[in-house]
Amino acid sequence: KLKVMKIKTLLVALLGSLFLASCFEDDSSLNYKLMNPIVIDLGDEPTTYKVFAFDTLEIKPITYKEGVPDADLSFKWTLEGNTIIPKVIDSTMTLKYMVDVSAQNNAYKLVYEVRDNTTDIIQEQVFDVTVMSPFGSGLIVCDTKDEMTSDVSLIMAYNFTDSYHKEQDTVMRNLFSSVNGRKINGVATAVRSTTYQVNRSLTIGTDHTLDRVDPFNYSYIDGNGDMFVIDPGQYNVTTIGYDPQIGAELLAITGKIYPRSMQQDNKVYSYYLQTSDMSDYYMGIFYRPAWENGIGFDEKNGRLLEFDSDDQLKVFNSAKLPADAPFDQNKLQGFTCLAMFSGDDSQMHIILKEKDPKTGKAKTNGKIYSYITLRTYDPETDNGKPLKIIDLNSFPEIQDARFFEGTETQNVIYYATSTKIYSINLAIANPLVTLEYTAPEGEEITSMMAWKEYQGKVDYTNPNPNADADDKVIEVSNNNRMIVLSTYNPSSREGFVRTVAIATLGTGTLEKNRELHGEFGGFGRITATNIQKAF
User: Fold this and answer.
1) Could you tell me the end-to-end alpha-carbon distance of the chain, in angstroms, rounded to an integer?
2) What number of other Cβ atoms are within 10 A of residue 213's Cβ?
3) Alpha-carbon distance 37 to 360, whole Å?
4) Tens of pLDDT along 264-307?
5) Would you state the pLDDT for residue 345?
6) pLDDT digits (tens, 9 = 90+) for 408-446
7) Residues 6+ apart with CB under 8 A from 482
8) What's the pTM value of the predicted model, to 2 decimals?
């Protein structure tokens, strides 16, 4: 009986516990709340982008979290990679970013972070962004807005860039400061873009500084003393030349020529060139054409010197000049050099003006001449080939001439005053001078160069139109068919680049229809321009 009672007691206890358990409802699931996710809906937006530097990158995701107002969400777009310090470029739901990092072959990482501020939960989306170089062939423009610092812009346009149509004309402004966070400390006096094998650089000189950037992305390379094997200590740049045959950049500072062979990715300038007879010299202006050795004017000794590649400066041998030579390259004392340029039929023009012996500068109302020589150094006679002297003093406003230029397809000299351009036709017995161009009212001419590259096109009015043809405008390659000017309006403080076609080769006639001239404004005072070729 006792055993049966124990069993009954256990059964009652078990049933009691089951009864009590049934009195409690299992509400554990009611204490758990499922969190809604942060949704980043890209729609058709990709996660991989290719964009040009200085263009605008836009990404427009639809981002939300159910049950949470947009005001309680915060956003952060962070760009990182390629050795840059990670930086926040936007803090809104959608991105609109002017790409201010340098072009690189490897992609940057762009991290989009969305935070729920009520819970501090974060959702991320990662994008790959490859920044490409937008910089190709065009015209480099250095300008100043404060007469103390400079910046560099690039014009890629119909007139300067192969395969560009007029509607594609674009100006990429202030590239130096945009990439490097500062302007050039000085007013630019010369600029040169060079590419040789794997070596490429853009060198900008002022009266006291040198700076160099990579024209592929405008990132800073070096400057001043870091650019030399032996630091010259002074960097007053007057001319930057280039020898494309051997890839040598030539720099005139403090009257000396410093060469840099760009082979094997060499970036530093060697010790300055010596003359062939080891005599001293002071050269401010020289001209190095693409097809032959260059020539420079030695202000110290009043003579011409020829560049022997990047090895030395050859002194011409007066003893071997023919008796009927129109001038001796070593007997040009009393002159200062105003300009130097190549003309037709392998000729070089050296524009010389009488100088004041006290100041060493051009004499007021001093006589002006063009000394013309063949560009080729004659190894048989150990001398050059002086051809003639052209007296320029009878031509209108010649004393006010600021710039001289010529092309390699016509026997013409152009000279520019502050407001006008004249042509001198040397192909006839009595040279003929013609007024070719007048600057727009209120503007003054600040530079003039002849375009000598097969790079871009130019339009001019057909001088002999076909009466049956509708098209009276001719479109041609701009090589030796275009003059590039810079002008400046002191009142508005705006600078312009202007292009004018040479409408009639041989006579030097410039296009008169201003509607066919190129115009690019919005600069400060332009102080240096040059050609940039494609990389």
Assistant:
1) 110
2) 25
3) 80
4) 888 899 999 999 999 999 999 999 887 777 899 999 999 999 98
5) 86
6) 999 999 999 999 999 999 999 999 999 999 999 999 999
7) 159, 450, 451, 456, 458, 499, 500, 501, 502
8) 0.81
The answer to whether the Cα torsion of 390, 395, 400, 403 is positive or negative is negative
CB 314 within 8 A of CB 308: yes
| Alpha-carbon distances of 497 from 73, 135, 445, 511, rounded to whole Å | 49, 18, 10, 16
Alpha carbon 268 to chain centroid, angstroms: 20
Distance of CA 82 to the CA centre of its chain: 24
Q: How far apart are CA 153 and CA 318, in angstroms?
A: 46
Closest CA to 162 of 458, 449, 409, 407: 458
Question: Please, what is the Cα angle at 371 between 369 and 375, to 5 degrees?
Answer: 155
Tell me the per-residue pLDDT of 240-268, one tens digit each, with 9 for 90 and over: 999 887 889 999 999 999 999 988 888 89
The two structure tokens encoding residue 382 = 């150990």
Residue 487 has pLDDT above 70, yes or no: yes
Residue 12 per-residue DSSP state:
H
Give the Cα separation of 425 and 436 in Å (integer).
12
- CA 398 to CA 414: how far, in whole Å? 11
Q: Which residues of 311-323 are buried (b: 16+ CB within 10 A; e: fewer)?
A: ebbbbbbeeebee
Helix (H) or strand (E) holding 175: helix 175-180
Contact yes or no for 143/183 (Cβ under 8 A): no
Token pair listed for 231: 């630091």
Place of tokens 């690039």: 154
> Is residue 19 helix, strand or coil?
helix
CA dist., res. 263 & res. 42, Å (int): 48
Determine how many CB atoms are found less than 10 A away from the CB of residue 113. 16
- State residue 345 phi and psi, 5-degree precision: 55, 45
Amino acid letter, residue 256: K
Of 508, 473, 449, 509, residue with least CA distance to 160: 449
Backbone angles phi, psi at 399, to 5 degrees: -70, -20
**Which of 132-143 are b and which e, b meaning 16 or more Cβ less than 10 Å from the residue's Cβ?**
bbbbbbbbbbbb
Contact 182, 189 (CB under 8 A): no
Radius of gyration of the chain (CA): 35
Strand partners, 191: 204
